[in-house]
Amino acid sequence: MRDHLLVVPVTAPAGCPVVVVDDADDADGDGQDPPYLVVGVDGSEPSGAALALAFEEADLRRCALHAIAVWQPPVFTLSSGDTLFHDERRHLSGTLAGWREKYPDVELRPEVRIGSPVEVLAEAGERALGMVVGRRGQGGYTGMKVGSVVHGLLHRAHCPVITVPAP
Fold first, then answer.
1. Residues paired with residue 40 on neighbouring β-strands, in sequence order
2. Which helix (H) or strand (E) holds 94?
């Protein structure tokens, strides 16, 4: 079991990617066909660094890569939910545009899901070899070294979690 008291303090100040593995994690990916990694994509600088590492790892491991953006519907908006959801899908497509050419052998599965980022990503990673996320996303306070989504995933995910700082 992950030592929840040490995970965040060890991860937060690191200047390099940190892999957090639970002793119950299935690092071999048994039962996966095909094996895959999950990467959380939100358009932030750390997310871009996570995407780069995720593609490199997927290429080295010869596994698929599930690139997941999570959309939370706004409480109040003047636009329709469909329009905003499609904007998120276009944004993800644009973010992934150059990566397909750079890593043609990586099977990429882009997806936009609706819900809580922690819940959606934890569920997506249940059978994954691992999950790669930027250490901080777009929201929160600028002084935070670990974002709320990463904090939640470090305590919730059932696969190894690789946190990547901004370059």
1. 68
2. helix 81-102
